[in-house]
From TrEMBL:
CDD domains: LuxR_C_like
Pfam family, one: GerE
Protein name: HTH luxR-type domain-containing protein
PROSITE patterns linked: HTH_LUXR_2
Lipid biosynthesis among keywords: no
Native source species: Deinococcus aetherius
Taxonomy, superkingdom: Bacteria
Gene3D superfamilies found in the cross-reference section: Winged helix-like DNA-binding domain superfamily/Winged helix DNA-binding domain
Residues of the signal peptide: 1-19
Keywords on record: DNA-binding, Signal, Transcription, Transcription regulation
Length: 197
């Protein structure tokens, strides 16, 4: 049983095979089904893998993409998704599907725990090991606020510091995690167990 109300997320389903079962699950969680440009999150399945151009046109303008099916979605979405994304197996539980939709809508990446991604910034660089990373308490706070999707300005208000101070800490986090973007920092932070989503 959920204890807090869910955010308002509009979901579009782009597969007749998904329409019945997935639609019922998502509506059961109180999410709204939408069409095309009105959707926040697009849900697709394996037939879309064979037509990358059509997929690119579909995902343009949505906050996130959830793909159900093949493990190939992990690398496809890691490289091509404009915002948040989730790659789930066809055996995903209703709770995993909901978590994937909410993560994608929030601009985060969600994938099965057995999958590990390289950093988007430098795919061949495994990055620092968890033992090599020491974030200050303030840097951990800033990383957590990045994971929540806060801008530097909002993070500064939340922490009671200047925006330039937040920018300084963001750059320190990027450096210590070996990344060059907010998405990379959040992904690496989750992989290293520094934050949870």
């Amino acid at each position: 049983m959920l204890s807090a109300p869910l955010p308002s997320v509009r979901v579009a389903l782009r597969s007749p095979a998904l329409a019945a079962g997935v639609a019922a699950l998502l509506q059961g969680f109180g999410l709204t089904l939408a069409e095309g440009a009105e959707a926040d999150v697009l849900v697709v399945d394996d037939p879309w893998l064979s037509d990358p151009e059509a997929l690119a046109a579909e995902v343009e303008g949505v906050a996130g993409v959830v793909a159900l099916g093949s493990p190939a979605w992990v690398s496809t979405l890691h490289e091509a998704a404009p915002g948040g994304w989730a790659a789930l197996g066809t055996d995903a539980t209703p709770a995993e599907l909901l978590a994937g939709v909410l993560a994608a809508a929030a601009g985060l990446a969600a994938l099965p725990p057995e999958e590990v991604l390289p950093a988007r910034d430098e795919p061949d660089d495994p990055g620092p090991s968890p033992a090599d990373i020491t974030l200050t308490p303030r840097e951990r706070d800033v990383l957590a606020l990045l994971a929540e999707g806060l801008s530097n300005k909002r993070a500064a208000r939340e922490l009671g510091v200047s925006e330039s101070t937040v920018k300084f800490h963001v750059q320190a986090v990027y450096s210590k995690l070996g990344v060059q973007s907010r998405a990379g920092a959040v992904t690496r932070g989750v992989q290293l167990g520094l934050i949870s989503v």
